[in-house]
Amino acid sequence: MAVGWPAAAQQSGTAGSALETATESIVLLVAKVPADARTANGLGTRRLGSGVVIDDGGLVLTIGFLILESDEVVLTRPDGTSVPAEVVAYDTESGLGLVRALQPLKMPRMKLGSSRGLKNEDPVLVLPAG
Fold first, then answer.
1. Other CB atoms within 10 A of residue 57 CB
2. Which has the higher per-residue pLDDT, 18 or 7?
3. Reported pTM
């Protein structure tokens, strides 16, 4: 599963609008983990990263270690507004996690695409929040 530019470019028809859509779909994610959690020593108790909105109901795809054992997750939209979220899932095989915003994000979702057609040295974008 790929997220991002190729799917957005196919939908929009232009790289510029695809990049704009991609950046508008990215949130800053802050997770707090109890000090006595198994992963707290190695990964910390405050984890900061990015996520991408993947549906209209506020579902956000992120890197799983950010939310592993967290007891609080906050998403920050590009306009600086913060929204609480809850952990939905963590997949140990892929290393990905899902959280759901507890209030409307009012953000566009990123269409999911396929990485099957990618070849070595194909250009890809890595877009952090902010």
1. 11
2. 18
3. 0.80
